[in-house]
Design a protein that fits this description.
The protein is mainly α. A two-stranded antiparallel sheet has the order 1-4. α5 runs antiparallel to α9. It is built from 13 helices and 4 strands. A hairpin with a 2-residue loop joins β2 and β3. The chain has a domain of 238 residues.
Length: 375
């Protein structure tokens, strides 16, 4: 041993998932790829075990929200940057997919034109330049990643380079999504104005409203969620992820240690935005509509609420939070629609005051008490 240079013991690499974690992951994989398709497509509708089309659409939508919540956890839970503008990235991915779906309508629209109906109504003669690649599925897949990624890179570069942080960063991101919403409301931008895009017919010339296509989108969404979860687990367990957590806990010390936080924050910001864009692209064909309302500041705040309710810096917590909040929303907006917003506000206040670590934190606390024999 060198007395002048003591040995440094590096932390050992942890497995991606524990044995219990892998078991839960495989159960979720089987449920998405096997159980749900069987219950929906093969079990007769009259059976108590039949999974209805409504349930497929609802769970598919919530899984898209869960991807957005997972993306929020990477930037807020592990990097300490609260974004109130992630709804804009979700909507951008949705609009890219919506443009492709509108082109797939072809001459089956109300006006029997090659142009989307809203363009014919507004007396447009040709497609605007930003629609030029919208008829290509391959280009659409690339743009779903590139458009939110480039917007996030440009915004994040100037924001992080100016060392904007804390509540000021949150306010600026909220202003960004509000400005984008106002822009997309304008008819002359070529995004359908207030009504947005709807009345989708086909994907890859396959009817989108068939049970098989609905289930295909459901399975793709579930696989994407599970894939992003494994990616996020790997990311936060890597050296890159440990630097992110160090930036969250003490950014000044990270700078004194020789790391430049700008590159790390910008990278995770772009990754998080791309994940939201993918979620939005999967969301649109399942819901059947995309409009500027998806960019409202309230939607971005809800994404943060999902992460807070489930438990920040846990990865699985925001996924659970998305299912809890949106499951409650689905029920309350039907049974007690006038109380939904009050419930959402009370839930967020209650979690902030009494469950700072969310549902996952509460479960861990109860398990530790039971293991320690504490009543």
């Amino acid at each position: 041993m060198n007395i002048f240079m003591p040995d440094i013991i590096l932390p050992s690499s942890r497995p991606l998932l524990t044995r219990t974690g892998w078991a839960a992951f495989m159960m979720a994989l089987i449920a998405v790829c096997a159980v749900a398709p069987v219950l929906n497509l093969w079990v007769p509708e009259g059976s108590m075990f039949h999974m209805s089309t409504y349930a497929v659409a609802l769970l598919g939508k919530i899984m898209c929200y869960a991807i957005a919540a997972l993306a929020m956890d990477l930037i807020w839970g592990y990097t300490g940057i609260l974004s109130l503008g992630h709804g804009v990235f979700f909507a951008l991915g949705g609009y890219v997919m919506g443009m492709y779906l509108m082109r797939q309508i072809g001459r089956d629209g109300n006006y029997k034109s090659d142009l989307p109906d809203f363009m014919v109504f507004l007396d447009w003669k040709t497609l605007p330049w930003h629609w030029s690649l919208s008829d290509s599925f391959v280009a659409t897949l690339l743009l779903i990643v590139l458009v939110p990624g480039v917007v996030a890179f440009v915004f994040g570069y100037f924001a992080f380079r100016s060392r904007i942080k804390g509540v000021y960063f949150s306010i600026i991101t909220q202003a960004m999504t509000y400005a984008a919403m106002l822009l997309f409301f304008r008819n002359e931008t070529g995004f359908g104005g207030n009504n947005g895009f709807t009345d989708f017919k086909r994907i890859l010339d396959i009817p989108v409203a068939t049970p098989t296509m609905r289930m295909t989108l459901f399975v793709m969404t579930g696989l994407t969620l599970l894939g992003f979860y494994l990616f996020a687990r790997w990311l936060v367990g890597s050296k890159f992820g440990r630097v992110l957590q160090a930036i969250r806990d003490a950014e000044t010390r990270v700078m004194f240690s020789g790391y430049n936080p700008l590159g790390y924050k910008l990278a995770i910001w772009v990754i998080s935005a791309v994940m939201c864009g993918v979620a939005g692209a999967l969301y649109v064909p399942q819901v059947g509509i995309i409009n500027p309302g998806e960019m409202s500041p309230a939607n971005s705040i809800e994404i943060a609420i999902w992460a807070a309710v489930g438990g920040r810096a846990t990865l699985v917590g925001p996924i659970i939070g998305a299912f809890i909040v949106n499951g409650a929303k689905s029920w309350l907006t039907v049974a007690y629609p006038e109380f939904w917003l009050y419930f959402l506000g009370a839930l967020f206040i209650g979690v902030t005051l009494f469950l700072p670590n969310g549902v996952v934190g509460l479960v861990k606390k109860l398990r530790s008490r039971i293991a320690g024999g504490t009543p």
